[in-house]
Amino acid sequence: MSRHGLSRRDFLRLSAALGGLVTLGACQPVPAPAPGEDVTGPGAEPAEEPMLSTELESPVRFSYLRPVWGPATYEKGSDFEKELFSRANVEIAAEIIPVFDYEVKIPVLVAGGTLKDVMWHAGPAWGTAHDMIEQGAFLALNDYLEKYPAVRDAVGDTLWTLTRSPDGNNYFFPMPLAAYVPFPFSYRTDVYDELGLSEPDSVEELVDQLKKIKSDMPDIIPLTAHEYSLWYFQNTGVSYAYPWGNWVPAEGESYDNPETIVPGNVTQEFKEFLLFLQSLRKEGVIDPDYMVTTGFKGIDKFRAGEAAVMTGHWGALPQDNYELRKSVSDGDISYMKALQGPKQPMGASTLEGFDRGFSITVQAKDKIDDIFKFLNWAYTEGYDFMRYGIEGKTYTVEDGVKVGIPDTERESGYVGPNIEPFGFPPKTVDTWPKWDEMLVSYRKLDVEEKLPNTVKMFKTAADNSMPNWNHLTYSPTAGEKGSQLFEQYTRPMQEKYAIDPDLPPSAFDEANEQWLANGGQQIIDEVNEIQQVKSPIKPVYEVPDEFKSMLE
Length: 552
Prior knowledge:
about 10% strand
């Protein structure tokens, strides 16, 4: 994840903006909190029975700015919105920004003086958020987490500890995320059978097979990607020992507690991975639209029967088969095993355990307790509604398991784009795969036989995952210009390798040298000075007992 920070000028503008916003609320200037000053807001006294928003006489009202991963087509006043407001005794003024623009737009909005009561961001180590915490723009949540234990326990001690600021306060409510989100290869077994090909054992063997597909089936794209992004080659990059956004021991350092760690973008393994991607372009075996054309997705081509192999999100397999069989009646798709790469087997990249989250701003100082009453409802009585919606509208119950209704079969007021703007983080326990729910979904799509393939793939990707040696350590230089360095040197270079078959290997070295010389080396030095313990982080995933037989 890139970290976009405020420039020094914008940082000063933020300070002025905060002063102006507080003045509007209190009719007089209020200085930023001094070190150690209570910024929790009123009403955090312990209560015997934590209240819910439904017990208040008046609705809880707050503004809410968050990213959306789905289409940004939210229609204000939808049926879901009305149902939520009625059930929770709440009125939320939701505003959305597409996730791919979010970290770019938020610093601009904040620098211009725009704050909402509740605002999502990338986390306390992200430059803009770090600056806002330092300026007192976000309220400490600690007292309210104690007052409302159901809200605290929804996330769990591990994430609260991981995202705690150096002053001991939690200013950030993380959205829990499974530590692993694999991106394996899926392949058309019917195409492989027709060509007499067997499932490959290595990345090198796969490339040879892609060349044969190109030669023997010129109308079929040998390889595409779920989305036209480098990230969808995550598991393949790991097979080259490229850690993506994570940090690794410097060359020659020990695995368990190295003296020095470095970010993945400066490693030779990154260079080797990019040269691999470039070789796919040179050989003409990758989707010609990959990283070139906007408005298209490789998954659409794969599902239409136009591609033989795809690297994509691990959860797509059942729908891939369902859609493919509409146009290719005997079509069949399976996951490939974890192929052996040049350095190690394919595996997932270890994620931070959360993907963004929200903070409550000083603008909401007088209503934070009521906001927590709503959260208390959302994680207790309202959790089923917040997670699944309404039976018959957003899900059905099959064999005692709730199964989501596709958007194409829902009333417009209950489609995903009208629900996501009011979404709050799930409980940590619900971020790992729910195999019982997936079993029902696979049965519904008539691909139940594919579930063992999925269970085994996920477990193997987790076992083969590459750790992260960076413990969310904040670097002031990364906060100030980490994003600028990425956009100026790293991104252009890595994208050129994906599309330009003639870009020389030296282009990587030149971009790397520029990144290091203009602040990258300072980032490395700061992280290593601040983070004294550099042990690898790699959570263990265990398949539930009732599904372990699928690993055999």
